[in-house]
Design brief:
The chain is an alpha/beta fold. The protein has one domain. It contains 16 helices and 6 strands. A 6-stranded mixed beta sheet has the order 4-3-5-2-1-6, sandwiched between helices. The longest helix is centred in the C-terminal third of the chain and has 31 residues. It is globular, with a radius of gyration of 19 Å.
């Protein structure tokens, strides 16, 4: 069984956007933890990021013959800096024959319907609730963390631990993200495409999130929750760090920093962290990337395509850019 705990925690922000459709970003004045590192540590992170293909860049054009695909790496959560990104993306959306996203309106509706039909997908419907199964001090810390995010502990008591870990990925300063309509970059792209009459299609099935968590045992989910609680006092700083990395187009640095932070926490053996991150990159990103390529190619047969998805999917040996290049596409980085 894959031990995906550290990596799932690191990916919490992106997954939370798919599961909870968060809205506008509050003013989180966290510290950029990467900028605060000693120069040697920053250099080590940069070296690790630059060791894989396409570590930087959020907007690319891929061409193969008559096929044209614009690849937009997104941050799923809202930020006022997305206004500038949309000034660049809007002309591309308007030219596209199809816009591809991780989850479009139909998939979001299907996700909510599935939860309505089977609450057990996200909630504990049989057996002890979390206050009954967790040590009292752990439950008390969790209850306090949920209250700080304006979530009643009685609701969290019945949620599967993995999903609570995702919620803890959103710091208290952005607690309103757990309520209301979405307004991250993905949603802005969908909104513009709808206004322009451009069809929006999904890159993958609506139940992707559920399938990822199906591979976790209850014990692994509890460990994942423990790790999230241990890092909770830094959640605002982590949030600010990841957002800053996105807007400087250092997508891979986001991943490498999450790996470094997990090792630095001292909660997991460093060798185990390396194994877990490799396994989770395969499960969370690489496998999905490979499944997306035929979808992108098929859409490109019909005309220009804009594909918008989490920026972490762009980089790496099995990233979307490297996979497109291996399929014969020529890649050009565009201004962002």
């Amino acid at each position: 069984m894959l031990r995906r705990l550290a990596c799932l925690r690191s990916a919490a922000l992106g997954l939370a956007a798919l599961a909870f459709t968060p809205p506008a970003l509050a003013a989180c004045n966290g510290t950029n933890l990467i900028a605060a590192l000693p120069p040697a540590d920053r250099a080590a992170l940069a070296a690790a990021a630059n060791a894989v293909p396409f570590p930087q860049g959020n907007l690319w054009q891929a061409t193969r013959g008559d096929q044209v695909v614009w690849l937009l790496g997104t941050m799923h959560l809202d930020d006022p800096r997305h206004d500038g990104v949309m000034e660049v993306a809007t002309p591309l959306i308007d030219q596209a024959t199809t816009v591809l996203v991780e989850a479009g309106p139909e998939e979001e509706a299907a996700l909510q319907a599935a939860i309505g039909r089977d609450p057990g997908l996200m909630f504990i419907t049989e057996g002890p609730t979390l206050p009954e199964s967790l040590p009292p001090e752990t439950w008390n810390r969790l209850a306090e963390a949920l209250r700080a995010r304006n979530m009643p502990p009685f609701l969290g008591a019945k949620m599967r631990p993995a999903y609570l870990s995702m919620i803890l990925g959103i710091p208290p300063c952005a607690a309103e993200m757990l309520e209301g309509p979405a307004n991250g970059l993905d949603q802005r792209v969908i909104t513009r495409a709808t206004e322009a009459g451009v069809p929006v299609r999904a890159l993958e099935p609506y139940d992707t999130l559920f399938r990822i968590f199906d591979g976790l045992t209850e014990a692994e989910q509890i460990e994942m929750l423990d790790l999230a609680l241990a890092l909770d006092d830094r959640s605002g700083d982590v949030f600010a760090t990841l957002a800053d990395a996105y807007f400087t187009q250092d997508s891979r640095m986001m991943w490498e920093f999450s790996r470094w932070q997990t090792i630095d926490s001292g909660l997991m053996d460093p060798a185990r962290v390396e194994t877990d991150f490799a396994e989770m990159e395969e499960a969370l990103m690489s496998a999905r990337n490979r499944a997306w390529i035929p979808v992108i190619e098929a859409a490109a047969d019909e005309g220009p395509v804009l594909a918008a998805f989490g920026a972490l999917h762009l980089s790496g040996r099995e990233g979307v850019l490297a996979l497109m290049e291996r399929e014969g596409f020529t890649l050009e980085r565009l201004p962002f």
